[in-house]
Amino acid sequence: MSAETASSSTAGPPAPVQRPTRRFTGRNNRGGRSVILSQPGGYSTEAVYRPPQPIRGGIPICFPKFFDEEFLEKHGFARTEVWILTHDTAFPPPTPDHAYVDFLLDHKPDDFQDWPNHKFELRLRVILGPTGDLTMTTRVKNVNTNGEPFAFKFAYHSYFSVSNILATRIEGLQGLDYRDYLNHNQFTEEADVLTFEEELDRAYLNTPDEIRIRDLELRRVITIHKDDSLPEIVVWNPWEDDAGLISDFGYEEYKEMICVEAAAMDSEITLNPNEEWTATQRLSAKEY
Ligand SMILES: O=P(O)(O)OC[C@H]1O[C@@H](O)[C@H](O)[C@@H](O)[C@@H]1O
């Protein structure tokens, strides 16, 4: 990953105060492979860039739901809505060698009729550090004026690029309970590293603050550092048969991707009026 920073722009809101002068491509400093799936820009070759289709790749934000929920689209509406650039003074300013940008989910109070009586603010700060670390902090605030709490779920649905799914290992999950969404059972992970040889769709519970994706062919480790607001890690690869059913996914792309999603999706977060919830994940990559 690499970025150059521009000096602050303060000419009238809304505006990012500091931004990369080049588009973030998720490539490492040695000119190597992208960290985030997969083609230029970090998306599937078949990604569709037209609402209401979510974009396949990158790091979609799942909010206020995860999976299919009655009345709401799968994984919630945040990943298919328009976000605007803003300048969020409530976030602490990062150090000068970090580039950052603030986003706000743009909506009017009555926009989401399927999720009524939930007045909320959803804000995201993305920070790119000088060594390529990518930090994302989300803030959700209940701005209901009717005194009502609301509840939600959340995930950073990160699509990581790997050289070969057969040579990919996830470290940090041993001993954890997980829900297996392919057979709707709960198990305990016995393996010291998670390997892949078929479709996999699981939510690991009560996970530690760091989870690593080891790419044995690239000799690269991507670390997901996350805070306590994100207790679950969802791991998903559709494998061949399921990938063939996903129209915005290249048929062979399952071989070079893995979704590892820091999430609060097993139980809902409840916010009272004026309460705020924040959740941070930081991604770093190292070759060895
Ligand atoms: O196709 P979508 O809506 O982007 O979802 C992709 C996958 O997202 C994962 O988070 C889920 O665990 C999977 O069950 C799901 O298939």
TrEMBL record:
Question: What GO molecular-function term can you cite, just one?
Answer: glucose-6-phosphate 1-epimerase activity
Which Pfam family would be a valid example here?
A: Aldose_epim
Q: Does the keyword Isomerase apply?
A: yes
Q: Region labeled Disordered — which residues? A: 1-37
Which keywords annotate this record? Isomerase
The family database entries (InterPro entries) matched by this protein are listed as: Aldose_1/G6P_1-epimerase, G6P_1-epimerase, Gal_mutarotase_sf_dom, GH-type_carb-bd
This chain belongs to the protein called glucose-6-phosphate 1-epimerase
